[in-house]
Design a protein that fits this description.
With about 375 residues, this protein is of the alpha/beta class. It contains 13 helices and 18 strands. Strands 1, 2, 8, 9, 10, 11, 17 and 18 form an eight-stranded mixed sheet that branches. A hairpin with a 4-residue loop joins strand 10 and strand 11. Helix 1 runs parallel beside helix 5, helix 1 packs parallel to helix 10 and helix 10 packs antiparallel against helix 11. The two termini are about 30 Å apart.
């Protein structure tokens, strides 16, 4: 019988594995994919996540594999900024900065830091049932028993659906293309994340390594002809946005609907706990989805240092984390709507420009500070 099983080797599951390993626990991570390969695009690890990686001894490795970002800038379609957030003071305080990195590269670093036998690939969870312990049935025909189960299996979590029987996925009405491209960005954008806000659409880009740039393009789905090319939709944006899109090979562009999870009443059951998107999936507008999964893993680790009773830890974990993740889910959803207004954009941008940087810093601090 397995003592601890983690379902899902995404960033949350791998972070939890690293935290449990550091605390001396034996566990197995079950991943549905047949290999941990380069899927997805770029990702930003904010200062809160980087503090956790620092405690895991992985900060330098991640910084060296990605690109440090010191400023987040919002602009109109013509790259004229109306809001900037610099967090130099917070970077100094926490001795960490935002790092933009290829998602697959981050997963590789987290996976390679685990004992080789900790991850089982090609294990897609089909059924989970609670008897005296949990009986896990996988698509590959394997059945096993586990005392403790962590559901790190994303927004469509089988663990949540079958055991907690709760949670509905809600659409934001937006869809997003994401691309990776070899591109020589002008030097002034090398350590800055940029987002251009237009009418019912926006475009963002950030350098993630020596020669790679990650970009994304979001639209209000109802407002655009579904057969239009991305370049056609964004033709009124600065030429830099169009150049990035045009330079990207079709196979390096992925498209997803943007959704989140309606807040669920409870993230845990007896000897079972959800983390990350399985518990509190958020839209990507604050760049905090994976960061919050990493924080979940960190808090569980800290609580286990004080108390070996998993059920007591799960209860305390939700109590500590709930307020912050609810704030992020709700705020992120609101930002998504505001950023893609279809009317009154100049007024919106003007109002955003009036928000003092101290307010942006305060919001950043609220997100960056770890709770334990």
């Amino acid at each position: 019988m397995k003592v601890i099983s983690i379902i899902g080797a995404g960033i949350g599951g791998l972070a939890l594995g690293n935290v449990l390993q550091q605390n001396g626990y034996d566990f197995t991570i079950y991943e549905s994919a047949s290999e941990i390969k380069p899927v997805g695009a770029g990702i930003m690890m904010a200062v809160n996540a980087m503090q956790v990686f620092d405690k895991l001894g992985l900060k330098e490795k991640i910084e060296n594999s990605g690109n440090k970002i010191h400023k987040i800038t919002l602009s109109n379609e013509s790259l004229k900024p109306f809001s900037k957030t610099e967090i130099l003071e917070l970077e100094n305080k926490y001795k960490s900065c935002n790092v933009a990195i290829h998602r697959a590269e981050l997963q590789r670093i987290l996976a390679e830091n685990l004992h080789s036998k900790s991850i089982e690939l090609n294990y897609s969870l089909k059924k989970i049932k609670k008897k005296e312990n949990y009986i896990l049935n996988f698509e590959n025909g394997t059945q096993l028993e586990s005392k403790i189960v962590f559901g790190a299996d994303g927004i469509k979590s089988q663990v949540r659906n079958q055991i907690l029987k709760t949670g509905s996925i809600r659409s934001s009405g937006q869809k997003c293309w994401r691309g990776l491209v070899d591109f020589e960005l002008p030097e002034k954008y090398h350590h800055e994340a940029f987002e251009l806000w237009g009418k019912g659409k926006r475009f963002g880009f950030v350098k993630i390594s020596e020669n790679k740039v990650y970009w994304y393009a979001c639209i209000n789905e109802k407002s655009f002809d579904r057969y239009l090319e991305i370049t056609e939709i964004f033709k009124d944006f600065d030429s830099l946005a169009l150049n990035l899109i045009e330079a990207t090979e079709k196979e390096n562009i992925i498209c997803n609907d943007i959704s989140d999870l309606t807040p669920i009443p409870q993230w845990y059951s007896e000897n079972l706990c959800l983390i990350g998107d399985a518990a509190h999936a958020t839209t990507p507008n604050m760049g905090q989805g994976a960061c919050q999964a990493i924080e979940d893993a960190y808090i569980i680790g800290r609580l286990l240092e004080r108390n070996k009773d998993f059920n007591a830890v799960f209860k305390e974990f939700q109590k500590i984390r709930r307020k912050k993740v609810d704030y992020i889910v709700n705020t992120s959803r609101t930002i998504g709507k505001i950023s893609q207004w279809e009317h009154g954009n100049s007024f919106r941008n003007f109002m955003m420009s009036l928000i003092p940087e101290s307010i942006n810093q305060k919001m950043a601090r609220k997100i960056i500070e770890l709770e334990l």
